Known about the structure:
Strand content: 15-25%
Oligomer: single chain
CATH topology of the largest domain: Rossmann fold
Distance between the termini: 12 Å
Strand order of the largest sheet: 5-4-3-2-1-12-13-14
Radius of gyration: 18 Å
Helix content: 25-40%
Number of strands: 14
Structural class: alpha/beta
CATH architecture of the largest domain: 3-Layer(aba) Sandwich
Order of helices and strands: EHEHEEEHEEHEEHEEHEHEHEH
Number of domains: 2
Largest sheet: 8 strands, mixed
CATH class of the largest domain: Alpha Beta
Amino acid sequence: MTTTQHIVFFDIDGTLLDQDKKLPKSAKDAIFELKEEGHEVAIATGRAPFMFEELRKELEIETFVSFNGQYVVYRGEVIYKNPLDQEALHSMNDLATKNGHPMVFLDHEDMKSNVPEHEHVTESISSLKIDQFPTYDPSYKDREIYQALVFCVEGEEKAYETQYEVFDFIRWHEVSVDVIPAGGSKAEGIEKIIERLGVPKENTVAFGDSLNDLEMLSQLEHGVAMGNGHKRAKEAARYETKSVEDDGILHGLKMVGLLE
């Protein structure tokens, strides 16, 4: 790789942040050095925008792909939105309620739950170590919903996968699954930014660790899987760096030739 301008996309959980949701100093320093070298830095996450606002401020990043590709912002401007199909979402909510599986509905500003409280909601949302928590409000029909969560254990999501082909289901926690529009991915959202910026494909880089990173790790020219990442993420990527706790971001940027 040359040192001409590249755009580098970073996943958050397990990539920028360690298991304690802390940002290693080496990762922060590396990102600022990247920007000083003239490269574009962006975030690509399954999180909602309000879930990583403080991180964006800390890293001075205004370009991001959120909701696994469904809400994309380039330098502070919303350039792409892909909300969930409302009719199918309403039907799925009815089925989930019947099955005893709580749901949470997210737009770009907040998240609402269809139940007052549930241990699976508490367990999974608390693992993100964020300040926000879904409030009880089963009404979501007047808002564009970019991602929903259905709370069920592994295997139980099959009941929804077979019935709702307009959605994709991605497990992110032992008791929770992301619901996004079918075919949606971080890679799709990333493409909108690449088109706007005009960076050639050979100058694109992605760092990730999980199942919702597979598309961007395989489709971008330089996919870098974290050492602590899922086996399938490592298989999808061109490179494998060290773990996030072991200066994995800095090491990976050196591997692809963007930092010395």
